[in-house]
Prior knowledge:
Two copies of one chain form a homodimer. Chain A contains three helices and 17 strands. With 275 residues, the first copy, chain A, is mainly beta.
Amino acid sequence: MTTTETWEFDDVSAVHTVSPGVRRAELTEGWDMGGVPNGGYLLAVAVRALADETGRPDPLTVTCHYVTPARLGPVEIQTSVIRAAHRHTTATALVTQDDARVAFVVATLTDLSRAPASRSFAALAPPDLPAPEDCILVQPVEGLANSPPPITTKVELRLRPEDVGFAFGEPHGRAEMMGWASFADGRPPDTLSLPVFADAFPPTVFNAGYAIGWMPTLELTLHIRKRPAPGPLSCAFKTNLVSGGYLEIDGNIFDGNKEAVAMSRQLAVVPRTRT
Amino acid sequence: MTTTETWEFDDVSAVHTVSPGVRRAELTEGWDMGGVPNGGYLLAVAVRALADETGRPDPLTVTCHYVTPARLGPVEIQTSVIRAAHRHTTATALVTQDDARVAFVVATLTDLSRAPASRSFAALAPPDLPAPEDCILVQPVEGLANSPPPITTKVELRLRPEDVGFAFGEPHGRAEMMGWASFADGRPPDTLSLPVFADAFPPTVFNAGYAIGWMPTLELTLHIRKRPAPGPLSCAFKTNLVSGGYLEIDGNIFDGNKEAVAMSRQLAVVPRTRT
Lengths: 275, 275
């Protein structure tokens, strides 16, 4: 890697200031789920605008409400600082397309390289995964009705073998989805790109026998706790509750040093039919 | 209970419209932690303003960023609707005191009584608690340095006996805090009051040997999945990760029918000293 090398994620998540607090970006083909930009990718674009606006390099806690499905193409991000304090800045980003509101983000950002040393405690550990080469690479299959979406050509997912049963009509019955994730072009993960990984895996409940299909995310919250070390991320997603037509998906993401870098939770809609 | 009976929570969380999108409330003594209004109580007031503004009775997913410690006394809530759709409305609430911003809330609200029937799935169960009368009632003790805060006179907490060890210098070492919670005056819980219960318990990490003291919440997200049945709520809080000076606290709240009604997650700051 040289300093002049560019990675695809940096291009497709770039934001350009057009006026104070207003930035534009281009939601790019390939980073989508059947034409709809991946929610994590959309969030990463908004977070980049917020890092730019606040001058804080690391999102610490980020929440996105997805209010209308976005489309590929240009997007405008209006940012607003709620409060800038000594260590943290809280700010919002309203994402619009042709004046239609598609998402609203609130985040508190900081500089994680200046995190104080503190006694740490972990009641969580990386998932017990086979080596990446012994996991199942997820890739689009032409002509297949439920083919993995285009974003899997940009974000390389290698699923724990037992978690691909759903694709063959043999879900194991637990609402879990685990595996390795990395950028296909080798770009190392960083705090600005973690939102992509938090929303790239197939829904957990496919493995609990729910029909394969679109499960729109209403809200996604991500805590980013550490700048990731290089290497593939090991990721564990689990659903604890499906009820009233909604499901939650909890994710834990670990870096190449097996340290926890992020925790995610989203609330999504279970389609009314086919479940 | 008659229809003319009033409950204290309804009084202290009441919001009064002063102009379109602007409401006032009074953060009331007794619902505080040593003079600072309880974060869940502050959030409940904002959520009440949002339910009022949107006409949707139930908060479904709510996130609050606490940007400055609030004080007891008058508070102003400015609401703004991001998008009103068929089933959900997303809106924001900015909470200020004397023009200083203290909190920012974004929520998606709905009508949970119209939730579609869907196949449900639960990988979580109520905590295994002794009967309320066999748990330890938390109450302020005059003159005690680390006395339970005033809000415990309004929200009755009965902790699992093994989880009160921290108060006697004998924490069990696990970052857990479990018990029963109810309003002291007998008001039944509802979706508008659940934020109070999500933030009323002592921090989990007191039981992992962290020093007893103030751990300011940066952000709290609450998913409310069901209108609670009457009776005390059984609540389980757990921390999975303390690192870089932050801790997350996850909560699961179950109603009198032993059904999950809410899931919470907050990010808080570990004090730099005394840990």
